[in-house]
Structures are given as structure tokens and as C-alpha cells.
Amino acid sequence: MERVVAIDVGRGTQDIIIYEPGIPLENCVKMVLPSPTVLVAERIKRITEAGKPLGLTGVTMGGGPSSKAVKKHLAAGLPVYATEAAALTIGDNLDEVRSGGVQIVERIPEEAEEVWLGDVDVPALQAALAPFGITLPSQYAVAVQDHGYSPQGSNREFRFSLWRRFLEQGGRLSDLVYREVPEVYNRMRAVQETVPGALLMDTGGAAVWGALCDPEVRAIQERGFTLLNIGNGHTLIFLVKGDEVWGLAEHHTGAMTTGKIAELVEKLQSGQLTHEEVFNDGGHGASIRAEYRELDPEDFKQVVVTGPNRGLVKDLGYYFAVPFGDMMLSGSFGLLAAGGYLDLP
Q1: Staple 134 to which of 92, 129, 295, 306, CB 3.0 to 4.6 Å?
Q2: CA-CA distance, 271 to 332, in Å (whole number)?
Q3: Is 208 a domain residue?
Q4: Tens of pLDDT along 226-235?
Q5: Where are the alpha helices (DSSP H) in the chain?
Q6: Which of 29, 20, 31, 9 is CA-nearest to residue 143?
Q7: What's the CATH number where 273 sits?
Q8: At a CB cut-off of 8 Å and minimum separation 6, what does 92 contact?
Q9: 132 in a domain, yes or no?
């Protein structure tokens, strides 16, 4: 078995483990670092404060903080230049990106301060590890949240249409893992451009697989459970039974309260949560498979929680998953398990 680095890229952090076959997992190198989009946003902020033109290069990556920093740079009356691949970080519709003030070019002007975009910064990671005599493996497994390439229409609606298709095709956990990334996932494909041959997953799918690395969760997999992943950006709820997902919902963590989460969980479990209810509230949506009606909702009553904002539900009696004793590496463990590098307990 080869060495592999698993990187779960979130909105706030990137959670990393370098898996070394033959040694206890607890002794493997682990890091929780600021996410690439946060780091890029900080670099752009410094350029804005210096009053200099900005040039964006690299590949398509996660937006959020980085895209907001670009808009603030433009609002300050400073020019922004971007290659086409980098510009897709700001929006899928390049005409809209241009109309927002970004100048899309083949080559960044010399006077602009360049910022490289990408979800995996190999040189930076290697530089951080070098003083400890650690080299990066050649094999990567990476999770990012990919909304899918959708130049027209609602970005939220399109992302959830991909989740709905996943459910309609059987909701198999194995289908959450990509070695050959579908064309629609341009962010995942950009990662494979940066690190060829990488295994890719959506962060939501990695969270499900990561929860199953907790023996307590693994023990109830066949009976069923509800996985609640409260991330820094998004909150996802999965109805899991056996090797399949039977229903799911996705919203934004910034809109969540303890009571709201409890209500969403209960309504999804009972089959009463509608897509319109979540979407019209600013979330992505909700869906359950038709076959779910034939199952006993009681099978899913046990709620398993992962994610850095799990404290929102600390008083609800839910089970907090701790795969290999480390919740923050849950998605990274999920990548290793889903890729066959690590056996589930």
C-alpha cells in the first residue's frame, strides 16, 4: 500500500493527513490549516491595502472569501485581471464576471500583483513540511464542495439537482467517489489538473464516509442513521442505511440555529421536508427517494454529528462522531476509507 495525502478542503479550514501504511493512524502527520480561499482572500486584501492592481492566475477553486475579496478590490477602484480558469472561481458566467469589472486576459499585465488560485497548493504544503524532513506522497485524495458548472440559472438549484440525480440513481455510497471526474464538476477537475491522478469527492460525501470510520456509527449502518454535517459554510443532512443514502438536505450554516436544525432533521426523517421549503429559505434543497416511503422512519432516528460547528446541537442528545479520535479529520479519514486506502472498523 502506498503513502497518500488526504485533504478535506472546506470554507474555513483544510484538514490534512499523510497516511503512512504500517504505522498506527494516530501517529500519521496531521494538520488543520486555514482553507485556500481564506489564504487567497488575505493575499488579495494586502494588495488592495497597497493600492495595486490585482492579477489572478492558476485554476478554478472555491469562492466565498476569495471572491468577496475580489469584489472589495474592485469597489476600491482598483483593477482586477484574471485568466479564464481563474475567473471561473468568481462565477460560471464569464460575461457576468466581466460586467462586474474583472478583465479576463490571456496574460496578466506586469504591473499587477499576481495571486495564484487553487484548492491544493503543493509548493506551500511541501515548504511547510520540509523542515521536518517530510515529503509529500505522490498520491492525493481531495474533497472539495463542487456546485457544478452552471453558467445559467441558480447555482444553488443546480448543485442540488446533482444531489437529486445521485439519489435517483440509487444513492450508493460508492458513487460519491471519483477517480474520473464528470465534466460538470469543474472545481474537482481543476484539482486533478493540479495533482494528476487524485481521487476526488464532494466534502459532503467525505463526511458520510468519515462518520463510518467511527465504530459506534459503523455498528448501526445496516439499521440506519441520520448524518448531520455542520460545516463552516454548509449544513448537510443525510439519511443513511446500509450502503445507500435514502434522502438528504443542504442549507447554509450561517442560517442555522439549534431549533432550526432540529426541525430540518425531524422533517427530513419523517419525509415531510420539501425542496421548496429549503430552497425558498436560501438553502440548496431537500429530496428523498421514492423507496424511502417503504422504510421505517424509526430506523433513522439516531442522529450522528460531524463538522466544526457541531456545538450548535450539543444539547440535543445527538451522537458526536469521533473517527479515530479526531472529528476535524473526519472528511480526510472518509477520503482514505472511500478510496480503499483504509479499512472501515
Answers
A1: 129
A2: 30
A3: no
A4: 999 999 999 9
A5: 36-49, 65-75, 84-87, 94-99, 122-129, 155-168, 186-194, 203-211, 215-218, 258-269, 275-279, 330-338
A6: 9
A7: 3.30.420
A8: 149, 150, 151, 155, 186
A9: no
Those residues whose C-beta lies under 8 Å from the C-beta of residue 193, and which sit 6 or more positions away, are: 59
How many structural domains does the chain have?
2
Q: Which pLDDT score, from 0 to 100, does residue 56 have?
A: 98
Cα 13–chain centre separation:
10
Task: Fill in the amino acid letter for 69.
Answer: A
Residue 343: is its pLDDT beyond 90? no
Cell of 158: 443546480
Is 311 inside any structural domain? Answer: yes
Question: In the structure, what pLDDT confidence band is assigned to residue 344 with cuts at 50, 70 and 90?
Answer: confident
CATH, residue 59:
3.40.50
Domain range for 236 is 219-321
- Single-letter residue type at 304: V
CB atoms within 10 A of CB 221: 16
Pairing of strands 54-58, 113-117: parallel
Residue 94 lies in a domain: yes
